[in-house]
Write a structure and sequence with these properties.
The protein is of the alpha+beta class and 92 residues long. It has two helices and four strands.
């Protein structure tokens, strides 16, 4: 790898990305959606202990489980990674 290519690769490592965590899907009827108010509970197609998907754009990059942090971050949600997708497929 040339010095220029190495510098470019190094610069890319500093680029922030946004990871979306998908916990489930809701499928209400339109009439139910229109009737929603701030106290509405929207059921999802998943359970609390089901794996969640971690997405970058439209690419699933990993799966994990929701955990609650302790200590100074008590109550904050986090994801424990349990499975990574094939990293060789990340570029395609």
């Amino acid at each position: 790898m040339s010095d220029l290519a190495g510098a470019r690769a190094s610069a890319l490592h500093a680029v922030p990305i946004e990871i979306r965590v998908s916990v489930g899907t809701a499928r209400p009827r339109l009439s139910d959606m229109l009737a929603m108010d701030p106290e509405t509970i929207l059921p999802l197609d998943s359970r609390i202990d089901d794996k969640v998907g971690l997405w970058v754009g439209d690419k699933l990059i990993a799966e994990g489980e929701l955990v609650e942090l302790d200590g100074d971050n008590a109550g904050q949600l986090a994801v424990r990674i349990t499975d990574l997708t094939d990293r060789g497929d990340a570029a395609g």
